[in-house]
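Limitations
The C-alpha cells in this dataset are predictions for the assembled complex, not deposited experimental models. Users should treat interface geometry with appropriate caution, especially where small molecules or nucleic acid strands are included. An illustrative entry is reproduced here so readers can see what is and is not provided.
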Amino acid sequence: MALLQISEPGQSQAPHQRRLAVGIDLGTTNSLVASVISGSASVLKDANDQWSIPSVVHYSDKHASVIGNAAQEKAADDPFNTIRSAKRLMGKGADDVRESWLAEHYQFNYDGGSIPAFKTAAGEKTAIDVSAAILSELRLTAEQTLGGDLVGAVITVPAYFDDAQRQATKDAAALSGIHVLRLLNEPTAAAVAYGLDSGTDGVVAIYDLGGGTFDISLLKMQRGVFEVLATAGNTALGGDDFDNAVADWIQAQAGVSQLPDQGARRQLLRLARSVKETLSSAMLAPYELKLNADITFKGELSVQQFNDIIEPMFKKTLAPCRQVIRDAGIAKTDVQAVVMVGGSTRVPLVRERVSQFFDQTVLTDIDPDQVVAIGAAIQADVLAGNKPDSELLLLDVIPLSLGLETMGGLVEKIIPRNTTIPIARAQEFTTYKDGQTAMALHVVQGERELVSDCRSLANFELRDIPARTAGACRIQVLFQVDADGLLMVSALEKESGVLASIDVKPSYGLSDGEIEQMLKASIEHASEDVRKRALAEQKVEGSRVIEAIGSALAADGDQHLTADERSDVDALIENLKQSLEQDSSDAIKQAIEKLEAGSSAFVERRMNASVKQLMAGQELEELERSLVSADDLSDS
Amino acid sequence: MQVDFSNNYFELFELPVQYVVSQDHLDTRFRSLQRYLHPDKFASASDAERRWSMQAASFVNEAYQALSKPLSRASYLLSLHGISLDEETDTQMSPMFLMEQMELREALGDAPDAADPYAALDKISAQLNNGRRDSESAFTSAANNADWTEARTVVRQWQFLEKLNSEVQAQEARLDDAL
Amino acid sequence: MAITMTERAAEHVRSYIEKRGKGIGLRLAVRTTGCSGMAYVLEFADEVAANDAVFEQHDIKVVVDQKSLAYLDGTELDFAKEGLNEGFQFNNPNVKDECGCGESFNI
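Predicted assembly:
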C-alpha cells in the first residue's frame, strides 16, 4: 500500500498520477539522488542507510555487476574489473585515456569503436555503460523510496563540461531508462539549493572545489530567475592534488626517496587524506604509518604547514575567479553572496581565503557534498509539473565557445562562450566546385585560435546538395544549442528550400545508430518484468499524448485546421488508441511518433497564434492560461 | 518548423526603435518572455511544442543579447536601416583615429614589462572607456539626425575599440594566470 | 466527529511545515476519482475556509471541509515506513475496500 506525501495546496494528484522526479548528482567519486518529499528536498538514503554511493562498478561475469560500496570492496582483489572515476572519461577519446592515470590502472580497448572501452570480465564497457550502471542503481533507490516509477530526472554536470561530455551523460541516462528532464550545471543547482531566489536580488558566486575539478560561476538573480553570467574553471585541480602534495611532504619528511610499489603510494595517499581531514577541525594532526620493516612514516603536520603546502594550488583557483568577474563585466563588490560547493571547501584555508577574496563571509550552511543533488531535486520537482506557480527559471550559458574549422586549421567562432542558451546561429556557405553535391563541416569547442588546440566535437557531412555550378547553391547551416548545452546542426539549401541530409560523426561519442543498438541490446537482455514495465510506461505516454492533443483540438482545432487536416489528425489519434489495446510497446511508440509528426503543423499554428497575442501586448499571465501546455492537460 | 517571429528585436521587447534603451525595461521584458517561452516550461510537453519553445527561446536570447550590448545594439540599428558593416571595399578610416589606435596597441604590447603591468592595463582601459563613451554619444546624435553614413563610420571605429578592449582583457587573464 | 493523528505523524508534519517556511497546518480531504471511487487528499493548509472543521492534536492543526468530514470521521493519520518508502497513511474506519495502492477507497 502506497504511503502519501503532503502536496502544495490544490496540487494533489489523482491516484497513480503523482509525478515522481529526482535530482541526480553523478559525481566522479560519489553519486547521490535527491527528491522533494512533502515539500522539502532531501537526499535519499539507500538500503544500506547511505546517502551517497561510491561511483564504482564491479563486473564479475557476462551479466553480473555490483555497484557502489559492494563494488568498492572488490577493488583490492579484482582491480581490473572494478571501475571507478569513469566520469573522467565521459566524452573522451583514446588519446585522453592514454594520458590519464586511468591508463595505468585498467586495461583498455582503444580501437573497438569511436570511444575507448574498459576490458572487463563482463566484456568491454565504455564510460557511458559504467555511468548507466550507477544511474540505474540510483533510480532503484529512488523508486523504492518514492514508491513508484520516475517521470524523469535532472542530472547535474560540471558547468565546464563540453558538448561531448554532456552528450555522453545524456546517453548514459537513456541506457539506464531515465528520462532526462534537464542537464543542469552543478553550480546553478547549488544556488537553487540555497534558495537564493527568494529575497536575494543580485549577483552570487558559486565556488566549487571538488576532488578533481574546480569551477567558479557568477549568477544573476532576479525574482526567481537565475541567469548564469559567466563560468570558468580548471578541470585538473582539486582536493586530490592537496592529498598528493601532503603525501609528498610526509614522504620527504621521512627521507624516503623511492616507494616500493603503487600499493605503498595508495596507503600513503590515504594517510595524507586523513591528515587533511583532521586539519579541517584541529590545529595539529599527528600521523603514523608502518609501511614495512624499513619504512615508517611518523610525525605531525600543523595547520600552518598544511596551509603553506596547499597555498600554491589554492592560488590557481583565483585566476578563474578574476576571469568570471571580467567576463561578466561586473565589479567584485557587486557579488552579494558566495556559495561553497564540493568536499574540498571544508578546508579552512579555502574558506578563509575565498572570504577574503570576495570580502564577505562565504555560505557553508548546506553540506557541500549534498548541495548539488538537493538543488537538482528542487528543479526536477518544478520541471515535473508539481509546482505550477513556481517562479524558478534557470538560464544557463554555454561554457566554451563553439567554432568551425576554416582554411589553414583556424577556428571561426560561431557561438562565443557565456552565451545564454538555448541559442541558434545561422551561417551561409556556397559550393566552390561545379557539380559539388556534398560538403563537410568540422565543429570544435574551445577558446584557442588553432583547431589543433580546441576540442574536436564532430564532423558533419552535408549530402544531396543539388548539382549546380560553383557558388550557385547557397546552404544555410543552423547551429542550435539546446537548454542542456547540446549542439544540433541542420542545413537548408536556400533556393530549393530542401533540407540537406546530414551525417554526424561525433569525435568522441556514440552516433545515434550506436545508441539505438545499445538500447535494443539492453531490452533484449532485459527480464520479462522490465519489458512489461516498458509497455506500461509506453501506454501511459500514449494516453497522455491523446489527451493533450485531444484537448487542444477541442479548444481551437477548427480555428487552425482545415476539415481535411482535422480528419487526418483524428485518424492518427484513432490509430494510437487502437495501438494502446495491443501489447507492443514498439507499435505504441510508432503510433505516438506518427501522431506527433502529423499534428506538428497544428501545434505550430496555435503556438504562433499565441505568440502573436503576446506581441500584441497581452498580459503574460492571461496568455499562460489560454495556452494550455500538454503537461497541464494530462492532469486535468 | 520555423518560429514565426517577424517582429524586429525592438518590437519584441516593446521598445521604440532607437539607440537609447532602458536596461531595466529590457531585463524585465526578457524575464517575462523567458518565463513563458523557455524549454523548461515545456519539459513534459510534446516534441513539437518543445522544439518550438527551444526556437522561440533562442530567438529571445539572441534579441536580448543584441539589444543589451551597446555596440551590438548600434550595429543592429544600422542593419535595420539596410546598412551593412562588413563591406571590404572601403577601408578608409580617419588617420587621426588610426594613429591613436597604433599608440594604444603599442602601450598594450609594452604593458606586461611595465613596473606595474596591471596599472598600465588600467590606463589603457580608461582610455578605451572614454573612446566608447564618445562613440555612444556620436552614434546617438548621428542616428537622431538620420545621418547613417556618419553612424556607420562611428560604429566601425567603435569596433576597433571593442576589439582592443578584448585584447586588454586577454592580457589581464594572462597576467592572472602567471600569479 | 473527530480526526486524530499519531505523534509520529505530527512530528513529521511539523518538520515539513518548518522546512516549507509557511502554513498553518494540514488539510485532509477526499475527492471522487481513482480506481475504487474516492481518493485521499493531503495538502499543506495556508488558510481555513468558513465551513472547515479544525482539529488540533500534538500542536498541529488539521483542517477538513464538511463534505469530506463525513467520509473521514474517526480517521487516524499515521506515518509509516515500508522498506525505503516513508509516508503518511490514513487509518479510516469507514472504508469497505481499498484499491491495492491505498490511495483510493470505497465506502
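Some entries come with short summary sentences. For this one: DSSP finds seven helices and no strands in chain B.
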